Request: fold
Amino acid sequence: KVIDETYGKKETSGKQETAIDEKAENTTKGIIFQTLPQDMLMQVAQYTTTKEVWNSIKVKHIGADLVQKARLQFLRSESETLKMKPNECANEFAGKLSSIQAKFKSLGGTLNDKVLVRKLLNSVPKNFPPIVASIEQYQEIDTMQFEEVVRRITAFEERLKSQDEPENNYQNKLLLASSNNQGGGRGHGRNFTKNKSSYGKSTSHRSIDKGF
Reply:
């Protein structure tokens, strides 16, 4: 009888401990589920124990972290290898750099303005050294905002274009004048030949008339 009573107490105690463990397990799972985003919750809801849930979250988090790092590395390589095309204006090239910076931010990374400023100054055409030297000499490159450098480079670019326009117009006028002169010369040559031929015929007729 004593043995039976003792066994009964142990069995009851074991059931109570199991119930407590299950309650704690469910409570912990409930707390975890409340902190998860909806898409992640749907992926781990199938697991019954807290350990299984945590393992699943860990694996998914590590995988997502690796993907994020790979994307950031790709963007960094893209920014380093990006080159300005021959006919590309500074503002267009700066827009590409700003787009890469925005993608960095969306992935939780950071691409400092200092990096973009250096990239832009090293990518401008060969006729831009005056403005590049001015910025590097009189400005703090490491603290300058990227937008400010873009504004200065663009202003210099517009100034170069305005200086090139009169020269281009002058060259076009020279070409047009040369073309007109060549056309006029050819016309006079044809008229001269025609008149010379007519003169020869007229002289021949007069000679014949005198012979008669």
Confidence is low (pLDDT under 50) at residues 1-10, 201-212. The helical segments are 2-35, 38-44, 50-81, 90-106, 113-123, 129-138, 146-211. Residues 77-181 form one domain.
